[in-house]
């Protein structure tokens, strides 16, 4: 494994235990970068650091930092000034608490780092903290100073390494005011059932299988232009008009998702098929299951209903009800409006008892 250059050296403060560590980046960017050029002749556009008082370019060694006051006055700040600040986190990652991981709002997550033990003496206390985090199943909340400001961090274990995620301060998270729709919208149960069916059809995905299609297309285009070839034509974008019928759009989405995952093309997506449809992943505890059953009970004799373990029986044209050979029975509604009750009880579903007259 190649050595990664550390960006910060310090120590983890764990009570009275000090653990020397090195901070290294846990992520890297694969984005394609571009240079600015002069469109007329292709010349590079470069930025030069010029002192506005002397009107000349200066080197990096001549450049310092300063704070601009409200009246425009520049107050010089040196590295020595910052190093002498009376805060313990200047060179220390100070652990202040241990909390369950679900207490951390994902909106606060920032850059990620790996903490590497700095030297042989640091191996024992480093391992101690790592194993303590594993056994407690909690994360450590810490404060540290980096790049000119004090920051909040979360320490957790990744494989056999302690990782640290930078966290935004709570007052840096904006409240979602004015973001949600401000109109009153009613979502029907059928629409929720179809949304559940679409989610269940799409299923899960291994994030390792996902890749950056845009970056690959840019790299292929650059390769073609470098070879003097014509880049491939972009495919025509799918026409996306205004959604006029939400139910039709959901049903079409379910069918397309089924076809993309090898299901029978043209299979009709029905609300009543959610509880009985065989899927690669069985999900439990959905609120829409009970709603789907209630919806199915209200349908007319032309609508199919399903049982938990057996296929549904069919109502005859005259509205009479037949008992199946296995003893299961289904309610059906006559098209003329007459009502019949089931003659027998099934093991999976209790039939409503008939009222007796005195």
From TrEMBL:
Residues 283-340 have a biased composition (Low complexity). Residues 272-282 have a biased composition (Polar residues). Homodimer. Interacts with LigD. Residues 254-358 are annotated as: Disordered. Residues 341-358 have a biased composition (Basic residues). With LigD forms a non-homologous end joining (NHEJ) DNA repair enzyme, which repairs dsDNA breaks with reduced fidelity. Binds linear dsDNA with 5'- and 3'- overhangs but not closed circular dsDNA nor ssDNA. Recruits and stimulates the ligase activity of LigD. Belongs to the prokaryotic Ku family. SUPFAM superfamilies: SPOC domain-like (SSF100939). InterPro entries: DNA_bd_Ku70/Ku80, Prok_Ku, SPOC-like_C_dom_sf. Keywords: DNA damage, DNA recombination, DNA repair, DNA-binding. This is Non-homologous end joining protein Ku. It comes from Streptomyces hokutonensis. Residues 55-184 form the Ku domain. PANTHER family: NON-HOMOLOGOUS END JOINING PROTEIN KU. CDD domains: KU_like.
